[in-house]
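Justification of resources, computational component.

The compute hours requested in this renewal are based largely on the per-chain cost of generating structure records like the one below. Each record pairs the submitted sequence with a full structure-token output. That output is archived, and it is also reused by downstream analysis tasks.
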Amino acid sequence: MTIAPIAPPSSAPPAPPLTFLWLELTGKCQLECVHCYNHSGPAGSEGSMTYDDWIAVIDQAAALGVSTVQMIGGEPTLYAGLPGLVTHALGRGMEVEVYSNLVRVTPALWELFAQPGVRLATSYYTDDPAQHLEITRRNALPRTRANIGQAVAMGIPLRVGIVDLGNGQRIDQAKADLAELGITDVGVDRMRILGRPAGGGCDAGELCGRCGSGIASILPDGSMTVCPLGRWLRAGDVREKPVADLYAGAHQLAREHGLTVKRMPVCAPDGDGQCEPKCRPGCDPALGCRPPGGDPPPPPSDDD
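The structure output for this chain reads:
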């Protein structure tokens, strides 16, 4: 009888538990931002994932212990099934963050966002409508600003990410404007040269270094990727393999590209946005803005 040799144990540590998942529901967006990493816009597609496919992903994520899902786009409020997905995730014990441009929020959506366990995030660029138009290609600043004020008035948790595109952008004035509206959770990140600003290029050096470490994303075509920005690093289709298996593959992809060991600057204790680049949703001062798990060897805003 021939006995097969025993393979030596892998030296690679196992992937940390998956705790945060981005669900990119659609590529459609009212805006067409010049810096968008996924080319979102009015001509964007909802892809091939069905509502039931997304429900299955949420169920698998809950079974794995995922504590938070962030629903993104494009513009997630343009996806008709958003209320049902949010409600389902809440019912499975998860917190939900909806990352919206806040251009248009219906009364039904305000009711949805006001539920316990739901929070909002949005992007902001400037207090100047003309500059905002230049960045987003749409005259939408008054509506976004009004809806930020509405969220504050309703007591809905809201964080804001400012993407710094340079060229005299009114960053300080945008911060002051947000403070006047009552927003205290504001982060600033540089523009990542990915997607539209890169002309389609894929540069792993633009990623934060936490990719695939407790986090992953699902795209509208069903692909699991190491994060929304690292969308070319795909582990497979969630309709063909379990989320757990794909996450293990995503973590391995990230390791192969050096994305789980990159050391990042430590965050300022007051969370004032000193990490470069951002690793969100939490710049945890206890961990620093880098992957947990060693020296050298929780999830990001996807400001689009």
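Residues 40 and 278 are 21 Å apart (CA to CA). Confidence is low (pLDDT under 50) at residues 1-9, 261-304.
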